[in-house]
Each structure stands twice: as structure tokens, then as C-alpha cells.
What does this fold into?
Amino acid sequence: MTDSAANRFNLVDEKWIPVANHGLASLADIFSHSDFSALGGNPIQKIALTKLLLAIAQAAYTPKDDDDWKMMGAQGMAEKALSYLQEKRACFWLYGEKPFLQMPAIAQAATIPFGAVSASVATGNTTLLFQTQHERALTDGEKALLVVELGSFALGGKKTDNRVVLTSGYTNKCNDKGRPATAKPGPSTGFMGFLHTFLVGSSLMDSLWLNLLTIEQVISAPHLTHGVGIAPWEGMPHGEDCSKARELKTTYLGRLVPLSRFALLTEAGLHYSEGILYPGYAEGGFDLSAAFDFFATKPRALWVDPGRRPWRQLTSLLAFLANERKNSFDCYQLRLCLPRARAVAHSVGVFSGGLRVSSNAGEQYASGTDDFVESEFLLESSWLDENWFLKLKTEMAIVEELAKHVYGCTMAYFKQQLTEGKDRSSQATTVFWQLAERHFQPLINACGTNTSEALRPVFARDALKAYDAHCPRDTARQLDAWAACRPQLGLYLTPNTTLHPSTHS
It folds into this structure.
């Protein structure tokens, strides 16, 4: 049981949601203030909260079709959500007999500290680099945020007390010898961390409306066989494999707010066990905000990659604009929502983000180069057609070749001096991509105004800067190698060319 059976800390009224340039807000505040610009927090907190807020809006009213969606508008969505929150206010107590998204029956499970389930807290023998990685006492609002986050983004491993089984005869948690099994990652995390994408409007309320799905769109997803469904807080499952749990696996609301962990808050930490086991993308189950290639020999997921930030994946995610399927990823959220957004908004943003994780011996964690990533860019609605997409794809392909050119030239520089240059070449390429990222939004804009070639000298200078930064020319020998191997970018700068610069031999 919770520390107090009395209802306490109602999420509808209490302030617990981080909002950019504002502070904390309640659920009621979110749907009352049209001036809120965006959610705050790290990328997976933003994604988990976006999914929760969408689930509330979908539970309040799911439009029948695009005409119904357009007629409702962002303000109409907010009004319906507020009415729903007041009607279902009793479902949103963080503490009490029916705590929000928690399982009182799991109280017999062992208690673990809150930091043990947070990817941003250093535990065990993990190196502590920043003060923010140190475990600290959490406020009630932070505990509420953690509960929401864990359902979607729980890390796989042995921190769950899987000896506690709520569904009679359920064997997934333990093996035949009764030993605790390793918990699977949350459905929004996957093996290495899925990259999630949502549309961004002129305000937070507008963003939620742009991402709201219709009944027609929900039933178009083959794995959501039970449609929109019922929000889990309206009727929590009784166990890992009860009828309610099985239904949540195949409904849209069940995927927006999954219960991959059964947890119960205490003052000291969490009672914590593996919850509902959701089918993965290989079995046909997936979050609509994640991206996959189902036309490959084996389904492929678009994983978070700190070395390849989300903006470099935009052409793959937007391939549907040109009806391209080869070597592209399909994000239902983007494909279903972007076409209609063009008709109602002068411009629309695209947010992509997530957390890269590693696995070892069944334990999942963030380590080494693993990190949070996020990118956001703005698209003018009038540009979003096949011609704009093909121009952007061409320019991005050439920028990719520039990166290879930087790598090849840096390798040649060190090879000429009979030294190993693989690491320095990789570092030079990374610097190039960091410099190039600053010019991606201008490139998007230039492709829309047919002036993309004017930006080629900018990317060329970035390539030369990256090369110069990692190829010293302090001695005569270094100067000779530097001059002989420096990138030659004349072909790249030639007007109207679509040829890629060749890699240095």
C-alpha cells in the first residue's frame, strides 16, 4: 500500500509538468493556457508527457475524420479535455486507494530507490560526471513524472522484482526454476532506443491538436485492432495477462500510455515489477511516433544515434512525400498528421528525439557515448511537396559526400606521414557535422526558395574548417601533407551541378 491511503496530490490541479519558459503546470493548466509554447525536460520526458497529454485529449474526444478534427480546432480540443479532466478527476490522484497508473497489489515487491530506474542518474559503478547525475530526494511532482516516464521508457534489466506475479499462471516473469527473469525494455525504448517524431505547432495546445489522430487514422494502423480503446487510468488491469492487459496491447490509448512496469510509490522508492509485455516491432507492435522500415527483408527500426543526430534523418522520414519506400523509414505519426497540417498551418515544426541505450548481460543502461538527442526544425507548408523534398534530398546527399570527403582527406594526410589517422579522421568528420547542423534550417528554407546552391560555399567552409582543425601544419613535412591532401571542392561549388565531390584518393 502507499504510505497514506488518503487521496493526495491530484495531477489535474497540482503543478508537476515542466513547461518551457514557464515552470511547472498542472494538467488543467496545459489545456487552459494557449500561450504555453512547449514542454520542458529532457527528450524522453517530453515524449512521455506528449503521449500522456495526447491520450487525455483522445480519451476526451477522438474526431471521426479530418473534417471533424478541423472543425473542432485546438481550442475545441482543449475545452473537451478540460471537461474530461474534471469528470475523471478521481482517476488522477497520485496517492490513495487508486493511485494514478500504479498497482497497489505490487506492494509485496521489493523497494528500490528512484535513481535505480532513471537513465539520467548514475548508479552502481557508473562514473559521476555532473551533479545532476547524483540521486536526490524527489518532489511529488517529480515522482508523478517518473511514473509517466517508466511506463513507456523503462530500461530493461534485473531491477524489477519479478517474483511477484499478479496473473495466476503467468510465466513470463520467471523461468521454470522460479528465478527472476530479466525485464524487457519499455515499448518506447526498444533494444537501443527508438527515435520518436511529433509535429510542433505555434503553441503547446496547437502541437497537441496537430498530433491528435482521428478514428479513421487509428484503424488504419494494422496492430491497433481494438481501435482507440479506454484510457488505462479509467480501469487498470488486474495483472500482467488479464483481459484488460491484453486489450491494452492492441489499442491506441494502451500504446500511448503503456504499463510496461507495475509500480507503487513510497517515500523511500518504488515497489517495482515488470508489467504488461507489449509486442515489439518484429511482432507487429509499435509506437506510431517511432519509425520503421517494414519493406526490408527484416523489419528495421530507426534507432537514436548521438553520432547521427535526428536532423540528418529528415529526408528518410519524409520519403512519403515522393512515394519513396527504398531505404526509408515510415513514421505513422508524421505520415498521418503532416499532410492535413499543411492545410491548416502556414508552417509546422518537426521534433525528433530519444535516448540511446546500451545492453550487456540483460541489463540496459546509458553509458559511454549514449546520450539524449533531439532536433527541431520548421517547415513552410507551401514547400511541402515532391519537388522541395527531392531538392533537399539532393543537397543532403551532397553534404553526406562532403563528410566522406573530410574523412578521406584527413586519412590521406596522416597516411602520407606514415601515422595512424582513423581516430582523427572520425573526429574531423564529427566536427564537420557539428558545424553543418547550424545551417540545416537555412538549407530547408533555401530548398523552398530554389536557392539551395547558394549555401554550398557555407558547407564547403565547414569541411575545410574541420580538416584544418585536425591536420596540423606546424612543420614543413606537415605543411606538405596538408597542402597535398586538403579537400578540393571546386566541383561541389560549380553552379547547377548535382555531382558529388569525389573522395580523396
Q: What stands out?
A: The chain is about 35% helix and 10% strand. The radius of gyration is 25 Å.
